[in-house]
Amino acid sequence: MDKPQLIKMIKHLSKTKTDKLFLNDFLLTWEKEKSELLAVFQVAQILRGMRDNNISPKVFDSGLAVSLFRDNSTRTRFSFSSACNLLGLNVQDLDEGKSQIAHGETVRETANMVSFLSDIIGIRDDMYLGAGNTYMKEVAQSVQQGFEEKVLPCRPTLVNLQCDIDHPTQTMSDALHLINWFGGIDKLKGKKIAMTWAYSPSYGKPLSVPQGIIGLMTRFGMDVSFAYPEGYNVMEDVVSVAKKNAAQSKGSFEIAGSMEEAFADADIVYPKSWAPYAVMEKRTDLLRNGDDAGLKDLEKQCLENNKKFISWECTRDLMNTTKNGKALYMHCLPADITGVSCNQGEVSADVFDQYRVPQYIQAGYKPYVIAAMIFLSKFENPSGKLMEVFNRGTNRIF
Amino acid sequence: MDKPQLIKMIKHLSKTKTDKLFLNDFLLTWEKEKSELLAVFQVAQILRGMRDNNISPKVFDSGLAVSLFRDNSTRTRFSFSSACNLLGLNVQDLDEGKSQIAHGETVRETANMVSFLSDIIGIRDDMYLGAGNTYMKEVAQSVQQGFEEKVLPCRPTLVNLQCDIDHPTQTMSDALHLINWFGGIDKLKGKKIAMTWAYSPSYGKPLSVPQGIIGLMTRFGMDVSFAYPEGYNVMEDVVSVAKKNAAQSKGSFEIAGSMEEAFADADIVYPKSWAPYAVMEKRTDLLRNGDDAGLKDLEKQCLENNKKFISWECTRDLMNTTKNGKALYMHCLPADITGVSCNQGEVSADVFDQYRVPQYIQAGYKPYVIAAMIFLSKFENPSGKLMEVFNRGTNRIF
Amino acid sequence: MDKPQLIKMIKHLSKTKTDKLFLNDFLLTWEKEKSELLAVFQVAQILRGMRDNNISPKVFDSGLAVSLFRDNSTRTRFSFSSACNLLGLNVQDLDEGKSQIAHGETVRETANMVSFLSDIIGIRDDMYLGAGNTYMKEVAQSVQQGFEEKVLPCRPTLVNLQCDIDHPTQTMSDALHLINWFGGIDKLKGKKIAMTWAYSPSYGKPLSVPQGIIGLMTRFGMDVSFAYPEGYNVMEDVVSVAKKNAAQSKGSFEIAGSMEEAFADADIVYPKSWAPYAVMEKRTDLLRNGDDAGLKDLEKQCLENNKKFISWECTRDLMNTTKNGKALYMHCLPADITGVSCNQGEVSADVFDQYRVPQYIQAGYKPYVIAAMIFLSKFENPSGKLMEVFNRGTNRIF
User: Fold this and answer.
1) Is A361 in contact with C59 (Cβ distance < 8 A)?
2) Domain residues of chain A, as ranges?
């Protein structure tokens, strides 16, 4: 993107309704209007275009971004860190192990205590069903109350870095990848995407990606085909959301009986392992009770059960059944690649390798998607502010 | 605070003697003159006023602030991080577990090795009686020597983030809260503050807050009433300091026999648990000898002993005995709240809830108090420098 | 260094050939031409001179520097952090324990995933023989490929923060210390340096420092005398490099039979413990197999064997045999000091103390050496860019 294109995009942004993103959290994509999702895509592209043109979009001279990772993370951690750094915020990790939080401190108190000079709070909390999104909402309410009570000088906004329900920074990056891959958001209309379960020799993978994908891709008039083995269903609420979205966007949503059915004539495939909802529920109880023996038992059962579906692998043969044999393969990474990261996994090595570069490009949108979410939550007139940033013309590298 | 008020405060600061704060550490409040404490309050308010007016007080274009936490921390860690970030310093944590410090390296060597491009060193070391303050002084001497030997380009200054004797960033925040609550430092004269022990089902809490409070509040002509159960006395040296301070400031200091006596007609109450000095001494020995069995025994004894004083709880009835039943309740947080964070604790839930907002506001001063300590240690003419910063007019958010 | 000297140095730099440093990694000193090493020394001095004159050499308005420490570090961690901060980069640590890397993710994938907005990758990987340098090269290839595939907007450059072969940020700092100590790089010609093994009651110390020293000091026409007890030899390849270097620079390289022989008439001595190559090889196998019992056995054997050479200590008597009894003592720190950090170690306390200040000064070059490596990898015309920075005149402290 050259500078004239950049100016054009910034001006174009002014036509997109963004006011409800201002001072608002980003928790679930289906809580946002379509225009708001478009604004995130646009701002992400603009910020990327600026950086690629050595223009620094730093808008904070100081300020903290709190990160709280209740689960491991590489991609999202670096994406969040990159996004905050790009805009001028400094990440301060809330390490619950090194804090006094264990001592019965309330969520409200912790949320306020870390927010006195904080602009953003990013949270990953995906291990406990029914917990992650609930926790984020509690943190959001707490800082809202703190702001209203004049405890906090501003209302830090929350970015969901993966919860039990959705993984919006991932799925929005996935969507932006599709937009650029197919040449525009309008091109997604009528495209078939297969979101399917795939076999993995591990267990307990969160539901947030498949749920997030069916909840988001149904917004753009796509034909979403969702397939999983018996018992591997996800949250009913999210399935309802997907159905409603599809109806509204004049796309479609179906639950297919097999990988083969979902892949047939698909434009895009997203085969990925996850744990059955029922297992995640049991697991949540066992984790809460600290029942290690129970957890081991459950893991054994679950891995045993997984093995029944070892044939759910994204192979060359299956890829050949997609639209012209050329569907775009997607994964949120890291994938379980047969013969590479495990003996038998989600995808064959040759299919993965064929799409390795597009997948890395897909992952590369995440820092900008997060930066866009932050930017839009902080500026009421993002187009105007971005034009100011452009005209200021500070170099990213001197 | 609006901009004209801000200018007025900055000008007013020039009347306060601050020269001995320049290039000096902040370890114990009673090592500072009263005018120096006032300067910290003033600069804290000015920095806060600037940020509230979207003026960035960043004065370092680069530079490290070393943090060393030998005990858990949430509030102070985020406060230190916020303060450093506000002024432009980047916190680099010295994680003794990930370093080679264990291998018999001297304090002098480590202190110098982490300080080549560092401006500030913040340390929390409150677990061992007789150790924390001693360690800080050794670090201070080490970097002073390093500076004199031309090993270091500047003398990093130390900020005590809690030691075995004092917790100055906490108590100075507490005092600033009182100043704003009562409408000026002169209004503190003659106010009665009850610093009392309170029951908690935990053990081994540091003495630094009660010691710091009696050592600081006696500076302002307050009537400080200090109460604790038999055996829960604190360091004799600090009690002497409090007595001397009270005499000089024409306030008073008394050791009361009960919570009831201390609370009677008090304007402010600060009920908080701590471990008896003798227990902390024993604990220090056991920790040093790695005597786990001994530590467990001591914990058991201590918790058993605590239970004798389970009635030391800040209840509504007790609050009713304070001045007009309206004393300001304070705590350094997190508090042990009966029925919330424990079955039976330091304070009843209704009293805590009534004062929750003031307490959060109290905690919110800490980042600015730390920033003020840093600022005053780095600029010989703080009033002039702040006016320059004001006139520069860089926005905190672009 | 005053400002006119600074300008002179910046101008002088334009005469040094630096083009091959541009966009290039810094892994082993012997992969660099002599002029490139000189450029690193020059830029390090200039950056230090700027900071000492309160000129901020910040050249990045944002950007990440990834750090990956697979072994403990204090000095190098703070040096890397200081260097990045000085130039405007923000360090984001890749903590393999908190990431998903364990799950069979390829090096190529991780390297790309952390690099979307990263300019620099600093790695310490010195525990496994044959692994550290290999890993760094794999990371370098991965990001090179990512850049060529348009996955990454720029090619992050690698800085070796210690591998199994070399420790260039250490040895370049050591060399810069010698240059300043003796008054110029030309003064090193003909100076005798004794790089010798010394006794330590620990085991498994990396070979990278002795290897790095003999590989680097032979570049400057020095007489390098290398001494170690039987069995404590290092990598053959590096010895060959040292021989070749010495021949080219018209210095000399010898393997001496004893500390005494090496110290005789030396201008500089660098006595330091390391593990025998054969032990490190065995250790690498045992570590890879997770053979804890084997590791304990090996440690025991090795410590036992070390004891045979307990007389290899840098004492006053030995120092008296050096040139005029005044050789410069060097160590990469922390040293095992007899009677201070251990009962019997590498150096006597009085010798260490005599040279404590020069050693600290030696350590103080590391942040600037790292910053110079980063700077030279990012600017094609470093002299011109430094002059721009100088003329910009931004204060480091406002």
Assistant:
1) no
2) 3-166+366-392, 172-363
